[in-house]
Description:
With 227 residues, this protein is mostly beta strands. Helices cover 7% and strands 63% of the residues. The chain has a twelve-stranded antiparallel barrel with strand order 1-2-3-4-5-6-7-8-10-11-12-13. Strand 6 (102-112) and strand 7 (118-126) form a beta hairpin. The chain is globular and about 50 Å long.
Amino acid sequence: xxxxxxxxxxxxATRFTTAPSTVxxxxxxxxxxxxxxxxxxxxxxxGWVGGDINRVWFRSEGERTNGVTEDAELQLLYGRSIxxxxxxxxxxxxxFKPESPQxxxxxxIQGMALYAFExxxxxxxxxxxxxxxxxxxxxxxxxxxxxxxxxxxxxNFYGKNDPERGVGSxxxxxxxxxxxxxxxxxxxAPYIGVSWSRSYGNTADMVRDEGGDVDxxxxxxxxxxxx
Length: 227
């Protein structure tokens, strides 16, 4: 599950400031999705506290479908700047759903590539020797000062099959999104869009065995806030 979650301009504005020495920033998205299995409410939140070099980051995302929590995840990471636009991060990830809780060690890199393209690559080592990796990217296309089109992408990989949680080894799934938001003020923006997800390989086989679809397109609508 992917919802774009960081704000490039706000990140740049606070990366190199002279005061205050400690800053807090948080962005939150709440999103309705028209899923095949019913109405889904998704959330995506991230933020940090710290200074120009050292920061503590948190990330949380999840989905509730028809009032039942299907996915829920929380990450707590220490980040250190290695350049004007990049941080290395390390910490812990806790999965609450699906199925039984699972704890992971997490480490990766995040930041801004050319043309303000935001990227995030994180590797995970979990219980029972499971490994995983996640790649995410997003880009803001300014149509006007307030109207912004944002394409997003996410890929998830796993080291071995985990039938309990419905994931297989190798490339498990991808998600592409396109959202159009209108910034009423910089800190608040409603948006609409579409997302498309697909499962692959062993993960797709598990989805089929459960009677699910290996690919799905969803209409989405939500609000985006930061402070």
